[in-house]
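so my prof wants the structure for this chain in the tokens format not the other one, which i didnt know existed until like an hour ago. anyway here's the sequence
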Amino acid sequence: MGGAGVEGVIRTKGNTGSTREFKMGELHVFPVDRLSEAFTGHRCVTAWLGYGTVLFLGFGETVLPIRDKDGRHTQPPFELETNFSDWRINGPINAWSGNSNREVLIAAAESLIGEAILSGEVGQRKRLAISFTGGKSLFIESWNSTPDLADAWSLKSPDGRILAMATDGRFVVVDASVPVRDWFAK
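here's what i got, hopefully its the right format
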């Protein structure tokens, strides 16, 4: 099921009983529960850069080691991945994927580890924003849409499903076994 985004708000209670606010696109269509489940009561538990400036952030309750005993990246309960998008981290270490060097990008991403998620917002301009404790925030902005539709960002959940946002603002929830090229097939 997919759709286009418009502004909306959802409020949820975190583990501490505090109110968490998430602003999401089209509440009756957009799978808010997927983001709420990943963000509510969780913190950033892993952070690393893939090829180029692809950002991987893990969310859960306990900070995880960067690699497992076999040397692979540890799999967090929830994992956010950027792809055809630019991202920016604001905080004590500011970084933008469009012009910061790799060392600064890594340091900024790793500075999010251990920080609790305070709020999240999906805007109609294909933007995901997440606020963290420690005065830190992450902004992901989709690249312009092209005829070859691509994923701007995706969020993998423990149930083996992926919420993905396309560069044109459409979204889908697919099984993790579905190849990326088929995520937004019409």
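also thought this was worth mentioning. The longest strand covers residues 43-49.
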